Prior knowledge:
Blueprint: E1 11-12, H1 13-19, H2 25-33, E2 37-39, E3 42-43, E4 50-51, E5 58-60, E6 63-64, E7 73-78, E8 106-107, E9 116-122, H3 125-132, E10 140-146, H4 152-160, E11 163-164, E12 167-168, E13 173-176, E14 184-189, H5 196-203, E15 208-216, E16 219-220, E17 229-231, H6 234-244
Parallel strand pairs: 9-15
Antiparallel strand pairs: 1-4, 2-3, 2-5, 5-6, 7-9, 7-17, 8-9, 10-14, 10-15, 11-12, 13-14, 15-16
The structure holds uracil.
Uracil (URA) binds at residues 111-112, 115, 195-198, 211.
Amino acid sequence: MKTRNNLNQLVRLNKYIADCGISSRRKADELIINGRVEVNGKVCTELGTKINPRKDKIFVDGKQVVQLDEPVYIVLNKPKDCITTTKDEKGRTTVLDYVRVKQRIFPVGRLDRDTTGVLLLTNDGEFANLLMHPRYEIQKSYKVTLEEPIKPEDIQKLARGIKLSDGITQPAEVYVIPKSKNKEVGIIIHEGRNRQVRRMFESLGYTIKKLDRISYGPITTEGLKRGQWRFLTKKEIENFKKLFEGESQ
Ligand code: URA
């Protein structure tokens, strides 16, 4: 397993304080000279001191300062047999076994262990909350592969809304994928309830063989094999953020 970072990398104390968003490097030097900075519980007035951000604890005016990670936005083409969590006590493969970055990212919402396809990950909590907020009704589309052909009347039922234990589902777009012998169905929903797609089909008596998320808003897995990931482009991030403009407070 690759290490995520160079654990012994030293940085200058003034740079670290600046990177934490406390002040400029020059001001940080003043803070140091004025005895306002502590390293591991001891006042440090020596300019040019180097610290290890992973190990040393830095306090300015008695308050611990931590480095701000730059925000990152990622799309993973999630494979089967991996769980959408950051850690697993039972040692099962998680999505973070596929996406190795130094920032502390987490998945936006979840996909079931056996569901494949588009999964967004970020370290930007506010962005993730907005993406999942029902107000924005971000469209998610899935390809459902069934054991048996779907009946035309059931397509109507899925589209109009299915009564589940947590309420009736909102109208969805549902279509049969051509040349699939009616065993592959596309469904576009705007909600994000737990196991929603599986529960909708199961409530009509179908067995799902495969479930693949084809898109999340405008983001697809195009160009990504299962298990591969990429950073979202600036344009893709901006487009999402435009949706939320004026709503983030
Ligand atoms: N709906 C489901 O049932 N499962 C998923 O993983 C995603 C949507």
